Each structure stands twice: as C-alpha cells, then as structure tokens.
C-alpha cells in the first residue's frame, strides 16, 4: 500500500544547503516565505498573522534507506533508531516545523523561525494546539 | 511532482468509525496499540516507555477534495480554510498525534491517548520536543 503526497507550496529561504541549516527552528533559524500554489487559495481562508502553525514539509534531500543514525549527525553519539530522532533521513521524510505566521499577503506566508532548505516542498499546514 | 508514503505500521484501536472518534486525543481518547512492520524494527532502537512521541498517520478515510470545512464538523460554525483547522479532510491527509509511549514489546507500541481509527496507517514516529 502506498499513498501519494502533492506539494501545496514551497519554502523560500536564505538556507541553501543542509550544512547551513540549524537542526531545529529554535536554534537560530531565520524567517522564511512560503508560496502557496494558486489551487489551494481557498484553504488559506481564516489564517491570521500572529497565529502559531505547524508546517509539514517533505525533506526532498533525504536518504530514505536509513533506519539508524547518529543523533544530530554527531558521530560521537552512538547510533539510534530514526523513530527516536528528528533526523531528516528516515523512511517517510516528513518535516514538522512549529512557526509563527508573521504576515500573509495573497498566496505568500511569512513565517519564523524555519530551519527548512530553500525549495523544500510544503505538504500541509495546521494550527498548533 | 508527487511523493510516495509507505506505512511503517498500523493503529489497533477500539475506535472503529469516525463518529466514535474524539476530535482530539485530549478529548477522552483511549489508549491504542501500534504494530510496526518487521522491516522497520531497527528504527525503534532507543525508544523508551514514558517518552512523549508524535505519531504521523494517514487519514485513510478522508476526502482530499475539501479546501474549506465547518470547524469540528459543526454546521453552526462558518466554513474556514482547511489549513486553519485540524480537519482530517484536507489535500494531504496526514494526522499528527502527540502521545505517551506506555509500553514497548517487540514490534508493538502501546500509546495513549490516541483518537485515530482502528486500521489507520502510521507513516512516521518522532520524539516530541
């Protein structure tokens, strides 16, 4: 059984490579812009600046074959199962990012902080609870 | 562009229909068991009972064509864009569930509380931060 994800938008960020990306948004990540595809315009209805959101992204540069990794990519920490880490290398490389929506203008959302790479596909947006 | 998700396990729950499911885990959801597929055994390495996890599921009973919904399925609340709701009906119907891992035995995880339906595919597990 397989399921298909379709991007609903893309990340535009000054972070261009995995080396430049903080491990978590709270570790000094910059703000970023999300451009939503026009066909999802109605799904933005009711979004308000200042609200906390969870962005779900697709880590398009990941290696999906990894089951165990060094946490934080640090070879001095023993390997562990990927389900007890936030490694982007995992069987289904979905990223979770809690951000604040600072501005919304037509199909563009400005959010902060976001550690995702420039060009990362966004697959869902939910209100944080 | 499309991306493919593969289940890494399945939910076993006393909740058999959407009518029976609380809207959120914190609204009286029961505990549930997750059976992980054998090929992902190594990815469980290092998981500890008592830890807080985020389960990502695939809402397999969802309608992906909805862009606006009545929040909480309540027709008395005006419709809103799905990205400002937690509706399971959305373009990429990924569920997010924060749970406590209460027991781990071989490939079976006991978690609580979980509002997902029996048979729901699980696509990822991450530590809560």
From TrEMBL, chains A, B:
GO terms for biological process: methylation. Residues 5-129 form the TsaA-like domain. SUPFAM superfamilies: YaeB-like (SSF118196). The lineage of its organism: Bacteria, Pseudomonadati, Thermodesulfobacteriota, Desulfovibrionia, Desulfovibrionales. InterPro entries: TrmO-like_N, UPF0066_cons_site, YaeB-like, YaeB-like_sf, YaeB_N_sf. Belongs to the tRNA methyltransferase O family. This is tRNA-Thr(GGU) m(6)t(6)A37 methyltransferase TsaA. It comes from the Bacteria. GO terms for molecular function: methyltransferase activity. Keywords: Methyltransferase, S-adenosyl-L-methionine, Transferase.
